[in-house]
Design goal:
Blueprint: H1 4-16, E1 32-33, E2 41-42, E3 49-54, H2 55-59, H3 68-71, E4 77-80, E5 90-93, E6 108-111, E7 114-115, E8 133-140, E9 153-159, E10 167-175, E11 179-190, E12 193-204, E13 213-227, E14 230-244, H4 269-273, E15 277-292, E16 297-315, E17 321-343, E18 346-368, E19 379-399, E20 404-421, E21 430-448, E22 451-462, H5 466-469, E23 489-503, E24 506-518, E25 521-527, E26 530-535, E27 539-552, E28 556-569, E29 573-575, E30 580-582, E31 594-604, E32 609-618, E33 621-622, E34 630-631, E35 634-647, E36 650-659, E37 667-670, E38 680-682, E39 687-697
Parallel strand pairs: 6-9
Antiparallel strand pairs: 1-2, 3-8, 4-5, 6-7, 8-9, 10-11, 10-39, 11-12, 12-13, 13-14, 14-15, 15-16, 16-17, 17-18, 18-19, 19-20, 20-21, 21-22, 22-23, 23-24, 24-27, 25-26, 27-28, 28-31, 29-30, 31-32, 32-35, 33-34, 35-36, 36-39, 37-38
Length: 698
């Protein structure tokens, strides 16, 4: 049997081999991005780590249900498939967000400039419809802080462009575990109006027991050109979802507790008896008004509003549970201006603006028996939780000369968190205010037309979320809160890197970073499925990111991404109900020291055929602050293929994907610091999807 090290050697060698022979008529260009500076710019000329995932990499041969499907190829990003739909995927950037077990935090998530992250930093990327996404931009490093609180990284998705000719399409996908997905789409341009309409219906029994899930989703994007200088784009998204939650598993089998390593499809008896599940819906509308004032100035107004309901049934033991519900209203706006001109006869671009956001959660927590709330169920929490932010920012670029560009930015954030308790218990009321001005500066040296070097340095900060300030001590019988002593963590972030175009057909990016954080927010006390949080002194994150892309003769392409991350606690602290010591030097749980992604693809245009082999490697990962246990390393291979025919106005594509082709047993993700030591979420063995898509162009 081929060893893990041998498989890794094959993956690396494949991606660097034969880069001297290229097809002469194909060029590999750096993508144009907007997330970095809020204006379109070639990523090659930016002093920061930023990558773009193209539409084919998002949609072709993919289930299109979670962001983890598309982000595995981005260095510095950890995007783990949890193999269940009751929770959002685990996404972190250079270790920021790794502690999250529910939702995405530590990163800012956007679609078409509209935030999917709330003012307190919690994000809900599951509300985006990947069927309609044409590109994803992922930024890491100091300049991410220009998006405000909790921006250890930025993930921004952009809707696909509407075609000039109207077209309709239908897609039917089937797969393992009785998976089924149907979608219909209409898109085009008519009388100056661009439109994109999509509806999808998904269901699956899930890989594990008690993981059945269903989701329906609808998206509409309408673009209207009001005049030659003004365009209004409206984006509407809605979904309804129900999903059973199989929860995590323990390492070793116990009474009513199957082992994650010997019974990966199993669930705990508590999950079955309490029928753990989630029922959620989300509706959001956003407007983006773009106006060109003159040749040098543009204005942009973004406004959005939405409502989200989330009802989660959780297990507290073999026969007891609780029902936690959130009814959320949220809205916000951003006004941005851009000015281009010359300073001392050298070109500059400057963006400036203000942004505000508001969220209000009606939170209700009740006891549940057998996964149901009855008339005799006690109410444990009834609160109104609010968060609002008001930010101002300015960011610019000045070409000092032909070889040197200077980039700099400044953002001021003011955030208020407020909790009002409606019950006469020890969970009280209170509010916290945070304010921070964040500077960042970077420089890029264009050594040659095909080689750039850059460096940047900046500050960032991450505030606690509303959930993280709810409790001082969650332990029964009298949980106390809110926690009004917790502080935001602050970071100094340094990055240096290089971008190289080896030829017209090979591109290499490398970045090295050093991040020092004060007042890292960590888990403190635990009770059942709840916990409290505190500041734990210093942490250190250092690492290297490398990506290589090559186009070879005969329509062969190679891509590889490598991440090395050392994320450790840099000071001692105690954790847990028994105050277990965590020494400096322990690894931050949920962070992987080494991750790799490699892909070899081939196209045969005469038959409309394409195929690709993907390889992914994750090193071992610690599951808690104490570093008491690990999930082992894993190497997984996947193959995908498609075949396309064009007949008249019809375009038909058949596609298939086989994941984990060697049927390995492995842990797909971990639940960091889980109270009941159910740290492990097993991944599926060999599984497949296959589908057919038909498109008619009028």
């Amino acid at each position: 049997m081929t060893s893990t090290k041998t498989r890794l050697s094959i993956m690396v060698a494949a991606c660097f081999a034969s880069t001297g022979a290229f097809a002469e008529d194909i060029k590999l260009l750096s993508p144009v991005v907007v997330t970095a500076t809020k204006t379109e710019q070639d990523s090659f000329d930016l002093p920061m780590a930023i990558d773009k995932v193209e539409q084919s990499e998002i949609q072709d041969g993919k289930l299109r249900m979670t962001l983890s499907e598309s982000l595995a190829r981005i260095p510095g990003i950890t995007a783990q498939n949890r193999n269940q739909m009751a929770q959002d995927p685990q996404i972190s950037s250079r270790g920021f967000g790794a502690r999250s077990s529910f939702g995405v935090r530590g990163l800012r998530v956007y679609v078409d400039g509209i935030p999917l992250s709330m003012p307190d930093g919690i994000g809900n990327p599951g509300s985006v419809d990947l069927d309609t996404i044409g590109a994803i931009e992922v930024m890491r490093g100091p300049f991410s802080a220009m998006y405000g609180n909790s921006s250890g990284g930025v993930i921004q998705m952009f809707s696909e462009a509407s075609p000039a000719t109207p077209e309709v399409s239908g897609d039917l996908l089937l797969g393992s575990f009785n998976t089924r997905r149907e979608s219909v789409k209409a898109a085009g341009t008519k009388d100056g109006i661009e439109y994109l309409l999509n509806y999808s219906d998904y269901s699956s029994d899930g890989f594990r027991q008690h993981s059945q899930n269903e989701k329906t989703q609808a998206t509409a994007r309408i673009g209207i050109k009001l005049n030659e200088d003004t365009k209004l784009t409206t984006l509407i998204n809605a979904f309804d979802q129900t999903a059973q939650d199989p929860g995590g598993l323990k390492r070793d089998a116990d009474v009513g507790e199957p082992s994650a390593f010997t019974s990966p499809t199993g669930v705990s008896i508590g999950a079955i008896n309490n029928n753990t599940r989630v029922i959620r819906s989300n509706t959001q509308v956003g407007f983006n008004l773009e106006h060109r004032v003159d040749a040098a100035n543009t204005l942009n107004l973004i406004t959005y509003a939405g409502h989200r309901d989330n009802l989660q049934y959780l297990s507290l033991g073999t026969s007891t549970g609780r029902a936690s519900s959130i009814s959320r209203d949220f809205y916000g706006t951003e006004i941005r201006g851009t000015n281009k001109g010359n300073l001392l006869d050298k070109p500059y671009t400057i963006s400036y603006g203000i942004a505000a956001g508001f969220m209000e959660d009606a939170r209700l927590d009740r006891s549940a028996t057998g996964g149901e709330v009855t008339s005799s169920s006690s109410t444990n929490r009834s609160e109104t939780q609010k968060a609002q932010n008001f930010d101002q920012y300015v960011q610019g670029m000045w070409s000092v000369d032909k070889q040197w560009d200077l980039h700099a930015g400044l953002r001021h954030t003011k955030l208020t968190l407020d909790i009002q308790n409606k019950l006469s218990n020890s969970l009280g009321s209170g509010s916290l205010d945070f304010s921070k001005t964040i500077p960042v500066v970077g420089v890029i040296f264009k050594a040659t037309p095909v080689m750039n070097f850059y460096a940047n340095i900046g500050q960032g900060f991450e505030t606690p979320t509303l959930t993280e300030i709810t409790y001082i001590d969650p332990r029964s019988p009298s949980p106390t809160g809110p926690n009004l002593t917790i502080k935001p963590s602050t970071s100094t972030n340094i990055e240096i890197g290089s971008k190289l175009l080896v030829s017209d057909n090979t591109r290499i990016n490398i970045a090295v970073f050093d991040i020092s954080t004060e007042n890292e927010i960590v888990t403190d006390l635990l009770q059942g499925s709840t916990g409290s949080f505190k500041n734990a002194g210093k942490t250190k994150r250092t690492g290297t990111e490398l990506s290589v892309q090559s186009l070879l003769p005969n329509n062969v392409s190679l891509f590889a991404a490598y991440t090395l991350l050392n994320a450790t606690f840099d000071s001692d602290f105690n954790t847990g109900n028994t105050h277990i010591p965590v020494p400096a030097g322990n690894v931050i749980p949920g962070t992987y020291r080494t991750q790799m992604y490699a892909e070899a693809a081939w196209k045969y245009s005469p038959l409309g055929f394409q195929t690709a082999l993907e390889g992914r490697y994750n090193s071992k990962v610690y599951v808690d602050d104490v570093n008491s246990n690990i999930a082992p390393s894993n190497t997984i291979f996947t193959i995908r293929s498609s075949l396309q025919q064009v007949v008249g106005k019809w375009r038909v594509t058949e596609y298939a994907r086989i994941e984990n082709i060697f049927d390995r047993n492995y842990i797909g993700s971990v639940r960091v610091n889980d109270t009941n030591t159910r740290f492990y979420e097993p991944a599926a063995g060999r599984n497949w999807i296959a589908g057919v898509k038909g498109t008619y162009a009028f």
